[in-house]
Every structure is written in C-alpha cells, then in structure tokens.
TrEMBL record:
<dbReference type="InterPro" id="IPR036457">
    <property type="entry name" value="PPM-type-like_dom_sf"/>
</dbReference>
<feature type="domain" description="PPM-type phosphatase">
    <location>
        <begin position="1"/>
        <end position="202"/>
    </location>
</feature>
<dbReference type="InterPro" id="IPR015655">
    <property type="entry name" value="PP2C"/>
</dbReference>
<feature type="region of interest" description="Disordered">
    <location>
        <begin position="319"/>
        <end position="338"/>
    </location>
</feature>
<dbReference type="InterPro" id="IPR001932">
    <property type="entry name" value="PPM-type_phosphatase-like_dom"/>
</dbReference>
<protein>
    <recommendedName>
        <fullName>PPM-type phosphatase domain-containing protein</fullName>
    </recommendedName>
</protein>
<dbReference type="Pfam" id="PF00481">
    <property type="entry name" value="PP2C"/>
</dbReference>
<dbReference type="GO" id="GO:0004722">
    <property type="term" value="F:protein serine/threonine phosphatase activity"/>
</dbReference>
Length: 338
C-alpha cells in the first residue's frame, strides 16, 4: 500500500492499478519474447473487501455466509462472449472454428491469427494483439459473517458448476476443500485441462481457527468495517449506529471494458495516483510535452480534450494502438504454441 494513501483510497485505486499492472506485465513478457501466455485471476483481500482482476477463463466465485453465489471474474471465452467477438473483429481479427481441411469445422470458436479460444490473456505473443491483457475487475464487500472464495482454472469449471464445487466440500477446511474439488473435477470423464484450485475462507472474528486472546467488545467486525466506510463522527449514538448499520454483502465496483482510455480515465478518484508526468501504465517519467493523452485519437472523445491526461509514454501508446487494431499487428512471432 503506498504510504500516501489510506485504506479506503487504496481500495478505490485498485481497479486502475490492476489495469496498469496487467498491461505493464504483458509488455514486459513481450520484451522477453515469451510465447506462451496465461490466464490470470488476481485476488486482493483487504479486511472484508475482495478485489478481483481477471483475464481468460479461470474463475473466482464467492459464497457469502448468507448464501448465494457471486461470480467475481469474467469468462473471456470467445464461444460465450459475443461482445468480445465483436471487439476482436472490429480490431482486425478473425473469429472462427478450426477447419479440418475437408470443410468441417470443429472445436470451440477461436481467434485468428493464433487460434486462441480466449479473447484476453497475459503474455500470449503468437496471437494478434487484440488478445488484450486488460482485466475485468470486480470488488465486493462481505458482511462481517465472512464467506468462502474458490479460485480455479478452467479444468475445474469444465467439470463442475459453481454450486457443485461449493457443495462437494461444504464443511471442510480450505486445504481439504481444494483437494476435494480437484478430485471431483478430474473424476469426470473427458478432456482435462489445467486443474488447479485455491479455497480461501474469510472468517468472522469469533470463528478464527486459532482464537486470539481479545478483550470482549461490542460489535464484532466494527474495526474492519470502519476502515471502508466513512461515518459521521457522532459519539453520542455510536453504539446504536453500529447496531443498525446494514452489515450485508455489497457490490462496490465492476468494470470489464477492454478500452484503456475508459479504464484509466481520470474520472476515477485519486487523480494523484497517475501523476501528470508519469505514464499511466508503466509509471515511467515522461518529459513535459512528450506524454500522449490516453484520449488522443479517440473516435468519440465527447467532452474530453486531447491534452487531458492521464498520459502514456510512446511505448505504451504503441501498445494501446496495437490492442485496438490501429496498427498492423498480426502474429507477433512465428511460434505455433497454443
Ligand atoms: Zn508507459
């Protein structure tokens, strides 16, 4: 956590930081000419707030203690995501199935060149650059009753529904639960893909596995909650307020656009996170006048002026243009890995 931000500000800054970090990582892999990429499901738990950034088809699901299932990641499979198919064809890619030669088409929808069946990933260099690393981001706040997170790769979700995965390990400790989910997933017949699983329990204070000696206080979880909610200081009725304040699962943030100018827009709080003379993606210093506004070249600039920040360095501007199909891209190298 940067020293100049408090916890609320940090949590609010995470969605933009995720976008910058994912794109920066993808660029760095590109420079190292790594050809084989990966899906990413990146989770930060801060108190009761869960922040998830994802590209690809690994998934993170949440079951709050109150019940129900929340999907905290997007599924960037071309087969099921029409919006992403349209984005890719608009950026110069082709979407179609594998052609066996005899005219028959088989398998899931793929993106050409490259043949990837995902529309977003990190580090896939042998595909068109419209396969972008810009993550879907979702932030949820749990109630102080807590909940369970399951983070798994596609091999699990090809075999199990979210409900089945949650049910098959109910009541188990997280490590045993993860093992059970993998066991159930590989027990199914058919093709197996990567099958990895992480289970995380976010527990209320009175259910921690090793009870910590704590002075008895009224209003469990209030300490954590107060980190994320600014309450008016009214000492006269504090106890009552804590009692009646809704303590429930809340969706704080959701955004999945692939457009950098939308995702790094200065309308978000904390403009100071992206300083005037610093690239909004890779954070290198930009000399005055050399930064390129993230809104430059926008087909629908609206009220935005091209000299409005945040700014990109020339290398990140090139990356943005490639991602949006504005410069010839094609295959970035001649590998035939998938
Ligand atoms: Zn940059």
């Amino acid at each position: 956590m940067p020293s100049d931000l408090n916890r609320d500000e940090w949590v609010a800054a995470l969605p933009r930081a995720f976008v910058a970090g994912f794109v920066k990582t993808d660029k760095e892999l590109q420079e190292r000419a790594q050809t084989s990429g990966t899906t990413v499901t990146f989770v930060i738990i801060e108190g009761w707030v869960i922040s998830v950034a994802s590209v690809g088809d690994s998934r993170c699901i949440l079951e709050p203690a109150e019940g129900g299932v929340y999907y905290l990641s997007a599924d960037h499979r071309l087969e099921i995501n029409e919006e992403e198919r349209l984005r890719i064809t608009a950026s110069g890619g082709e979407v179609g199935r594998l052609n066996t030669g005899g005219g028959a088409e088989i398998g899931p929808l793929r993106c050409w060149p490259g043949g990837l069946c995902l529309s977003r990933s990190i580090g896939d260099m042998d595909v068109g650059e419209f396969i972008v690393p810009v993550p879907y981001v979702k932030q949820m706040k749990l109630s102080s009753a807590g909940g369970r997170l399951i983070i798994s790769s596609d091999g699990v979700w090809d075999a199990l529904s979210a409900e089945t995965a949650l049910d098959c390990c109910r009541g188990m400790a997280p490590d045993a639960a993860a093992a059970q989910i993998v066991k159930d997933a590989v027990g199914h017949k058919g093709l197996r893909d990567d099958t990895t699983c992480i289970v995380i329990d976010i527990l209320p204070h009175d259910k921690l596995p090793v009870p910590l000696p704590q002075p008895k206080k009224q209003g469990k979880g209030v300490l954590f909650k107060s980190m994320f909610r600014k309450k008016p200081c009214d000492s006269s009725s504090n106890v009552e307020k804590e009692y009646i304040e809704p303590d429930m699962v809340e969706e704080l943030f959701e955004e999945g656009s692939a457009s950098l100018s939308e995702r790094l827009d200065s309308k978000y709080p904390l403009c100071n996170m992206f300083k005037l003379f610093m690239c909004a993606v890779c954070q290198v210093e930009i000399k005055p006048g050399e930064g390129i506004s993230i809104h430059s070249g926008s087909s629908n600039p609206g009220k935005l002026r091209p000299w409005d920040g945040p700014f990109l360095c020339s290398s990140c501007q090139e990356k943005r243009d490639a991602m949006e199909g504005k410069r010839p891209s094609g295959r970035r190298c001649d590998s035939d890995s998938d």
